[in-house]
Amino acid sequence: MNLHTHTNYCDGLCDPVEYFEKAIELNWKFIGFSAHAPIPFQCEWCINESDITNYIQEIQSLGKHYQKAINTFIGWEIDYLHGKDFPSLNDIQIQNADFHICSIHYLPILKSDNHVIEYIEIDGNFSDFSRIVNYYNDNLEEVLNLYLNNFKTMLSLPFPAVKIIGHIDKICINAEQYPIFKKYADNFYKHLYEILRDQPKNSIILEINTRSIYKKNRSNPYPNYQFLNTISNLNIPTILSSDAHHACELKQGFSALNEQLDKRKISINWFNIEDYFSSK
Ligand SMILES: [Zn+2]
Ligand SMILES: [Zn+2]
Q1: Domain range spanning residue 173?
Q2: CA 221, 105, 103, 229: dihedral to nearest 10 degrees?
Q3: What is the pLDDT of residues 246-269, one digit of tens each?
């Protein structure tokens, strides 16, 4: 199964029905949908606010249609924004979802009084990312620390539904373009580890996201294997997702990932989402 999927309601390429049919073909018992929830400024990959009700209704009615074959969960990928928490949770329909994938796609450009001038994407174009680094006096370490602070605050926020933490080190796809990243990487991952270690037990679910393997042609998922090995002693409940933007991507990267986890003897505390939802 996979909960992290984007249809053409946001930046995915397929209709919801294509995901249902693909998931049923794969003999999955569960499928989740996680459209990018709106944010309070223009965002080309988010759902339009006016489509929220249609998105929910279409998936609900398809879920009914296919209910003998598969169970459906309607969720959202919601953005944490510095100073604004999860703005999309102000919408009651988004708040009432089956689950949320909490992600950081933006970091703020801050004035000295902490006022936000602008939010800039960290995992999109390198040119956007480099604009952030430029703003902070070309100090990549400061940007990484800003990310870690945002990450820590995000995890501390109270939460209505299942709280899945999305692609926790995706910032590295751009940060590692800077040769000096090598100098900061150990420290970055050490802090990431400490933040996860200090979470109350079972308060979060971590995702291993394979999109970087099949789409970005990287050898590592988010988070990377070395980090997955480091955090294995924390026993954080974990789910596997592909962040599919096309029905044919529903399980892409899964077998390559499992092979690597076996080969590297990395043990994962897989979260049994089926048990979780069936006990509700
Ligand atoms: Zn994302
Ligand atoms: Zn996503």
Answers
A1: 16-103+140-278
A2: 30
A3: 999 999 999 999 999 999 999 999
